[in-house]
Amino acid sequence: MGVNIHTEFGNAVERGSVDEFLLHQMDPDRLPSHIAVIMDGNGRWAARRNQPRVAGHRAGAEAVRATVETAAQLGISYLTLYAFSTENWKRPRLEVEALMGLLREFLHKEIRSLKANNIRFQTIGREQGLESAVRREIDRARRETDSNTGMVLTVALNYSGRSEIVEACREIAAECLGGRRAPSEITEKDIERRLFTKDLPDPDLLVRTSGEMRVSNFLLWQIAYSEIYVTDVLWPDFRRANLFEAIIEYQKRERRYGDVNPAAKGSLTAANVK
Fold first, then answer.
1. Which of 19, 40, 202, 204 is catalytic?
2. Where are the domains of the chain?
3. What is the pTM of this model?
4. CA 260, CA 255: separation in Å to the nearest integer?
5. Active-site residue, 40 included
6. What is the number of other CB atoms lying within 10 angstroms of the CB of residue 195?
7. Active site annotation includes 117
8. What is the chain's pLDDT, residue by residue, as a tens digit (274 residues)?
9. Active-site annotation holder among 88, 190, 217, 237
């Protein structure tokens, strides 16, 4: 990865702390290139404290800040955060307005940190469906970080995995109807090139907080072979140590993409010969 993670965090983690212990459990040569996160649990976090849901969303912004900084320091190339789905519009109007306000506030405040950490910001989803003030902050963040060469931070806003695939299929269908291609020529690559994530590699690791065992219409095409890690930690409580734990678990797994490991394949071959 080109980053000495122990040196990078040398002054950031306390000696003898859980963070330091976990840091030394990670193999710096086997870090995931792309981590995607379903940030869940803000509402439950607030409810447990008898606070309004917006308090959970505000606390969740701190978790975003910690996760982005940690991923960048580790040398992760891509981080994608699920911030607002198309289904989230069904929530109470006041909560949606508060979420949009927090998003504007976060982008406005964090632009300096993104630039200082060499992070390039972008979004995926139907941007045109967001209010104009949010779009202005998105444009500003994207413009001011466009030349950064470090981690790519992608925020999914007004996003739907199903709709993304449908739109890609519609584009291809139009080409077929126009005689520009035959249906028999369509490949997976044709769909991938029309997704919002066409410039991103598929996630290596998908992290879900709050213990829910579902993917919630997030990157449905892209996570076909992602390693999935679910933690009971609610998103506002998610910090550096929790990301370290997710990566350590990822590094314990053997990614085979539908194949068998070489040792098992050799055993099967030997058995067939007999």
1. 40
2. 5-169+202-273
3. 0.91
4. 9
5. yes
6. 18
7. no
8. 456 776 777 677 888 899 999 999 999 999 999 999 999 999 999 999 999 999 999 999 999 999 999 999 999 999 999 999 999 999 999 999 999 999 999 999 999 999 999 999 999 999 999 999 999 999 999 999 999 999 999 999 999 999 999 999 999 999 999 999 899 999 999 999 999 999 999 999 999 999 999 999 999 999 999 999 999 999 999 999 999 999 999 999 998 777 766 666 666 655 565 4
9. 88
